[in-house]
Each structure stands twice: as C-alpha cells, then as structure tokens.
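Risk register update: the risk of archive-format incompatibility is retired. Evidence:
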Amino acid sequence: MFGGKNKSILMLVAVASAIGNQQTNAFVPVSMNKHNHVQHNMQSNDNDDALSSQRRAFFNTVGATAVSSLLTPLVAQASDFEVGGKIRLGDESIMSQKGHGTSAAPVQQDLLYGVSNKLADKICNFNRHFAEMGGSFMSTSFEDEVRAANGPITFYDSVTGKPLFVAPINRSAEDFIKESEVHGWPSFRDNEVVWENVRVLRNSGETVSVDGTHLGHNLPDRSGNRYCINLVSVAGRPVSSS
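Archived output:
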C-alpha cells in the first residue's frame, strides 16, 4: 500500500511520536507520578506555566514537521506527471502483438468502478475498433465517484496502472459528466490527458496507451479534440514506480 517515500514518512512520524512520548513523560505533572517525592509536587505549581509553554512549542514543531512530511508527498503525487499539452501522435507499431494481445499482460484483477474484468480484457487487449456499450458507464460507480471527489480524478491504465487522464480540469464535475452522458462514453479534452502515456494513431484517431492498451478514439468537435474513452480501459489502480 505504501511506497518507499511513504514508508520513510511513516518512520518519521513514528520517531516523532516516540520523542513526543519521552517529552510528555518528562513534562507530566508530578502529581500523576506516584513514585516521585512529595517535594516535587510542591514545585509543580510554579513550573506548570513554563512546562506547558515548552510542551506547546515542542508539539507545534514536531507536529508541523510530521504533518508536512506526511502530506507533501501525497500532494506531490499529482505533479509526478505532466497533464495536458499538445496532442501526441503515434504509429501502428504501438499496437503490435505482444504477450497478451496488444499488451504484455492481462488487465488488473481488481479494477475500479465495478466494471467487468472480462470485458475490460477484451476491449483493452484484443480489440482495435469496438467499444463497451454506449452509456454503460452510467451503471457503474463512475459518476458518484466523480461527484464525491470534489476535484480532479486520475484515471489509470487498466493493464499497466499508469496515469492516462486527469479530469475534470477547467470545468466542473457536472460538465464532465454531462458531456460524457451526451456522447455515451467518458469524454476527455487535451488538457486532461497525460501525454507521456497516451498516443493518438495518425491514420485512424485511435487513442491508445504507449504500452498497447486500446482506450478509444479521438472524435473532435467544435470545442477541439475529444477523447471518447472506454471506462473499462481506464479503470486501473495506480502501480508504484518503485
């Protein structure tokens, strides 16, 4: 579940917690420690304010460091890859036969959104022209998850787990869903594509992953390029690069 960076972060939090416990024990009011001498209790009232200030300063420092270290890599994951830019074209060699149809391996076993694993494998790896049933994505958890996200969602390759699309960007969740419903398939725009991992074949408009996963087609309209994508092709889970 956690990559190398996140393990390091958890270790940092554990160390900070351990240090915090030591500091807490050092600052516990002596009245709570039955093994201390009575005269220490007499001094506790004079020292309470100073000790409380030290405790607050300590935990503010450790807490800020730990939380910052924990959250920064999670936020940074969104910038681990570039989203948007000019369309990138590819040629037929991308879709050459490999170990499992046009891909090196079958789709992941634990696909998201409740899509059919069997259909996903057929569409992604043994297909160049056909698609899942129009509107079928509406019977999955896709729309609920888009609305619940309160921001862009990253859609991953169902075979490799690489990021392919991030949406919605520069539009609302409702606009993204509405356009997808109108056309029958999740519809992405140029600024929502992770071009490092996606190509559009020159002669056909077929939209594919660089690893040979069939995704859908580019069907431009008055607003520009529109990538009409099978949900079963982008229902993967992220795979750590490590």
